[in-house]
Amino acid sequence: MVRTDAESDETNWLDFNRRFDAHFPTLYRLFESLYGDRSDWLDQLTQLVLLSARSWAARPAELKQLDDKQERDATWFSSNSMLGGVCYVDRYAENLDGVRARIPYFKELGLTYLHLMPLFLAPEPNSDGGYAVSSYRQVSPALGTMEQLRDLAAELRSEGISLVVDFIFNHTSNEHQWARRAAEGDPRYSDYYWIFPDRAMPDAFETHAREIFPDDHPGSFVQLDDGRWVWATFHSYQWDLNYSNPEVFRAMAEEMLFLANQGISILRMDAVAFIWKQLGTTCENLPQAHLLLQAFNAVCRLAAPSLLFKSEAIVHPDQVAEYIDPGECQLSYNPLQMALIWESMATRDVSLLSQALERRHNLPDGTSWVNYVRSHDDIGWTFADEDAAELGINGFEHRRFLNSFYVNRFPGSFAHGVPFQDNPRTGDCRISGTTASLLGIEQEPDAAVERILLAHSIILSTGGVPLIYLGDEVAQENDYAYAGEPGHDTDSRWVHRPHYPAENYAKRTDPATPQGAVYTGLRQLIAVRSGTPEFTGTRLVDFHTGNRHVLGYQRPGEGTNILVLANFADHPQRVPAETLSGFNHTAGNLVTGEQETLDDGVELGPRSFVWLRTTSRT
């Protein structure tokens, strides 16, 4: 058993030790796997457990009650009432008090999950949008204080909204106190990072590691003022942490538990694929990366058992799935579905999306997707070339087409996207743009409204936590003035991170406007979803429509079944009666409230969808 002088409440003491008995063997095994070749690994593990006990002792009683509740309902996040929103604090609400003032609107929309983009202390202009953290314990002064964040988390929680923040744990800013000490030559903190005296080891690592942002710095290392070289995967001012040092693991676990005790419910684990380095490999998606996440998870089960992890891994679809497990990351972004919704919009062909839903959607019990139409980041074409090849699609050429389509270089394109990291010579780039601008709001608003609702109907019905980039629900457009803001001129992703679109929100109650039509349509779908128990969880059963323009899938329930049909074409499409012959003669249209006869097939208008409650024909 573990006892600390700080722990005086006998009930809490017994509770901690119950979880210690249950989870310490896992933590021991993982820590030994990662660090067992070091002479100090048991001492480091002992310090880690004592840290966990101290953190538990300091955990507020209200959060301990939440721990107990969610331990008894471990899949609470799978509810059909879950709805997420994501935003930048400064751009959407100016500061944390501004976010707090918008809670009534979040309730109006139906949010149960609010992801605030990186809000911790970061240097300007070299903040990478907040992903270069100088302190995990200080909020950026322009946004507020840690006390305000804690109060916001409590108020959100009282309204049934879980607070989500990013945990940037692959790297810190070069202005973090650890990095400053390392730059000064302190040997202890130099070992917190991958720092070498000359180019011998950097050259050896770079033989296999790929460049991520070559425009910022070639290779994976940058040189310090004293001549040493430090690993910086992403930007020169973001230094990669050295997790082969168990003291780094312990230090980051302490930061994680501190945030959990402020009332954070979910941590978005940033850049999970890069957290472990090993010579002779690409240093991406290594087995030890999974062990690290599992070990962090085991620490949380001791000291903050309601805290969940959400993985951010924009990698091969097979590798995305490897991070999703109740003992690793309970939640995961669904980048493949996101990319293929956009692919289907451009091609009017659902073959790749249908294949992905059939092959790659279902997850282990106790886990869930976070489904989104778009995020704060650019859109990249993450489908697997081998999947595309099965359908006769050349992956390289198809990506070139999609890039051309979404930056309006393809004849007949409706999209008004902006290229990110464009390479005109190769045709390679990624795509920036708001949902509305990418779907044609600037040139054909009526059709764009239909596309916007169609795209969101997929994330609302496939299974998982649907996540809306706030402002998209009122059809916000690109901010083409982004380049005039300090530090934004070289990063086109700011085009789809506009400031709060007040005029759009003012029109949300008028369905005669594009903004009101999108908002009214989404609110109806959200309400239908929350009233449809078949939409609980993530289980999906494929359904082949026999029509490459029409996506089909099923969400099974207790004796009932929701059949989703979605037409991505610009012309009406019909699903014939023969294709529907396995279902009963009639079905309830959940969106319209009407009964439909399946004996004559289903007619779908351009860019339209139906959610049909059916039963199997006997």
How would you characterize this protein structure?
- This protein has 618 residues and is of the alpha/beta class.
- The chain has 21 helices and 25 strands.
- The chain has an eight-stranded parallel barrel.
- Strand 15 (418-423) and strand 16 form a beta hairpin.
- The chain is globular and about 75 Å long.
- Residues 1-7 have low confidence and may be disordered.
Set down the secondary structure blueprint.
Blueprint: H1 10-35, H2 41-58, H3 61-72, E1 84-87, H4 89-93, H5 96-101, H6 103-109, E2 113-116, E3 120-121, E4 135-139, H7 146-158, E5 162-167, E6 171-173, H8 177-183, H9 187-190, E7 195-196, H10 200-206, E8 221-223, E9 229-231, E10 238-240, H11 246-261, E11 266-269, H12 287-303, E12 308-311, H13 317-322, E13 331-333, H14 335-347, H15 351-360, E14 368-372, H16 385-390, H17 395-406, E15 418-423, E16 428-432, H18 435-438, H19 445-461, E17 465-469, H20 502-506, H21 514-530, E18 541-542, E19 550-556, E20 561-567, E21 573-575, E22 586-589, E23 595-597, E24 602-604, E25 609-614
Parallel strand pairs: 1-2, 1-17, 2-5, 5-11, 11-12, 12-13, 13-14, 14-17
Antiparallel strand pairs: 3-4, 6-10, 7-9, 8-9, 15-16, 18-19, 19-20, 20-25, 21-24, 22-23, 22-25
Helix pairs in contact: 1-2, 1-12, 2-11, 2-12, 14-15, 14-19, 19-21
